[in-house]
Amino acid sequence: MAIFYFLIFPGFIFTAVVGLLASWIDRKVTARVQWRKGPPLLQPLYDMMKLMGKETIVPKGSSRLTFLLSPLFALAAVTIVSTLLWRTIISPNTTFLGDLIVILYLLIIPPLAVIMGGFASRNPLASLGANREMKLILAYELPFVLVTFIPVIQAGMKIKLGEILIYQLNNGIAVGSLSGIIGFLVAILCMQAKLTLVPFDIPEAETEIMTGTYIEYSGVPLAIYKMTRAMMLFVLPIFLVILFMGGITFSGWHILWGILKYVLLLVIIILIRNTAPRVRIDQAMKFFWGPMTALAVLGIILAFLGL
Amino acid sequence: MAKTIIPIGPYHPLQEEPEFFRLHVEGEKVVDLDIELGYNHRGIEKLAESKTYDQIIFLVERICGICSTSHPIASVQAIEDIGGIAVPERALYIRSLIGELERIHSHLLWLGLAGHFIGYNTVWMWAWRYREPILDIFEQISGNRNHYAMMKVGGVRRDIEESDIPAIEKAVDDLVPVLDMFKGVVIDDPVIHARTKGIGILTKKDIYNYGALGPTARASGVAIDVRRDHPHAAYGLVEWNVITQEEGDVFAKLVVRVLEMYESVKIIKQCLKRLKKVKGEIDAKVKEIPPGEGIGHYEAPRGEVFHYVRSDGTNRPVRYKVRAPSYMNVPTNKTSVVGGTVSDATIILAAVDPCYCCTERTTAIDRNSGKKTLTGEDLIRLSQEKTKKVARELGLPLEGKLKAY
What we know:
- The complex is a heterodimer.
- Chain A is mostly helical.
- Chain A has helices at 2-7, 12-33, 43-52, 64-90, 99-120, 124-154, 161-171, 178-194, 206-209, 219-244, 254-274, 281-305.
- Helix content of chain A is 72%, strand content 0%.
- In chain B, α4 packs antiparallel against α5 (121-142), α5 (121-142) packs antiparallel against α6 (165-187) and α6 packs antiparallel against α11 (250-277).
- In chain B, β7 and β8 form a beta hairpin.
- Classes of the chains: A mainly alpha, B alpha+beta.
- Chain A binds chain B through residues 30, 33-36, 124-125, 127-128, 131-132, 198-199, 201-202, 205-210, 274-283, and chain B through 4-7, 12-14, 25, 27-28, 115-126, 129, 189, 191-192, 194-195, 341-346.
């Protein structure tokens, strides 16, 4: 049964399909915002199929094993996160105590894998990209972890996602409170950085370092990275939906309401991505360590005060 | 920290043309910059010596796809300068009109690219979308969206019909709210301020030292503009201002270009008004060019284009010389990029609006002897050798044909 959960539903296959759909929505909406036509529905799938059929080139002098394994680490981590999150949504009591902390750890693995792969590929642009990715993780991880405490505090120091969810179902969602709103805003911006989308696409900045860490990847490993990114576009908003917006309920029209929550977050991501230029890495660090961390701390204090 | 080289080029998403910037970096900081040009040398100057004066205009139009009327205007003015040819007034207005429309489309193109370079793809697509109506006007006037082939020694090749004028006026009027929008969105955006203010600063002294031109110079407070300093076409006959900014950073260059588009709109509207009144010939019907020398300037969107022609009285020039503004502007990167970060370097390199197809020229010098290598004859020889090699490999009987050279 665990294998089924991991591979089919709600694990790999389910997340991949919805993730590719989300990336299609992202591309289509982006195209419409930019007066373009946008790709057909199955375009992300075609892209994957095409990459699967391409030759995999490993650069000379690179660390072959690390280079090829990194994408797999990223994919495995995001699949586990998705499985955990959806198990929580479907039946809040099936997961274990402290799953929130495990998920926070697992969510750092994809960027770490990207860094490993970047350094392993022995390319100056890739190592510059990995360098930037490292700084970016250091920047956004602090406020991101801080704001995940806000729903924990509100739910009475529960570090199990299922219990946070049940608390929110009974007592109103986290975004309904002042501390929740602050936490939610900070979390959205941290999510943008975790997804490395504009304005925080610094590690892969196409016009500066030509996709940085991904530059040497081709064929199947690149497809796996692309797939991971598409799945992150699905998993991270769902994580925030559980933490701050009371998750998705499977009863009657509630399910539509749940999907709407996800789509809302997706649209926010796409709009931020299309209405801002890329910032510099030092500006991003100042932004996350300065105002964002301050807001996160403020949110925690407010949560303690019960606001 | 160890020094690393970050290559920008010869093929890089930052630039549409082949060129090579070698950034020596320590971490993110750029400590040195090497500029290598000459990947796309086409030998236009030499080619011009084998063309007649009528053909040269079309040849120089191909120097650059973006300023495809700046080079022809400079060229016809240089040739007219030899013979002291007076151009009919109506043709002057048409020249300025085409030149200013081109400036708008070029600046919008740059604005879009600048947005793309700092990751703001929406600005890119929007700027290029609003550039379309300008290209449509060109198509209406000349039949081509680019490479309008409007210039001719002694005048212009096509008249602007009275019936076309309202459509052009409307398109230009529609552009003003668009420019207001870009002014609002781009110039007032705090993130764009954060990315462009205070980086890539060129002082007045740097501008004089490098001989930088156009918006690059004007953004550093150096008010040079050949349209005003050396009036040609109809620029002496209409009212407009030279836009300058004092700061010299990337943001100042952005502001200069956006504000210049308003001035271009002003010039176009005045030209259209005069075109309704000034009737008559559009061509001085030049028969021959006397021996002598001539120079032509034109303020292209990137700065002053300079053409020099020497005639010996035949229908072909004996020497043709082109100097495009990017040739003067690109070296300023050495000053503006060093000391910044890699992220800044990209937008600074793009801030001079470099146009490499205008700029390319090649001199290969042997380091040991200091002598020039790869002259014209050498290149022809290399080309023939390569053709022979390919023919041998493919087993083709090309040997006989090559003797024709």
